[in-house]
Write a structure and sequence with these properties.
The protein has 90 residues and is α+β, with helices and mostly antiparallel strands. The protein contains 5 helices and 3 strands, in the order H-E-H-H-E-E-H-H. Strands 1-3-2 form a 3-stranded antiparallel β-sheet.
Length: 90
């Protein structure tokens, strides 16, 4: 499910972990697996590491389609899009 949270913009590991009832090290391990699989990338920005989807990936493209119809992923994707819109406001 972390990929659904990354559908519209990148997040830090802490921001992702806050949405799950898992420890931050467990979330970081899952993110590492997704990165190794070529599904997400990480970028160090100051003291934080931001994770984002790799757009040109067939699995991510198919997952994006599924998120449009999945009753669980759809609200998560909307939350991600709303977060992006809120950042764009002056």
């Amino acid at each position: 499910m972390p990929r659904a949270y990354l559908s519209a913009s990148g997040l830090t590991a802490g921001e992702i972990a806050d949405r799950f009832s898992m420890s931050k090290p467990a979330v970081s391990q899952h993110l590492s697996i997704l990165e190794t699989a070529g599904l997400i990338r990480r970028e160090k920005q100051g003291q934080f590491v931001h994770y984002s989807l790799i757009e040109n990936n067939l699995v991510n493209t198919l997952n994006g389609f599924v998120q449009e119809v999945c009753p669980v992923s759809r609200p998560i994707k909307k939350e991600s899009q709303a977060r992006v819109r809120a950042k764009e406001l002056p």
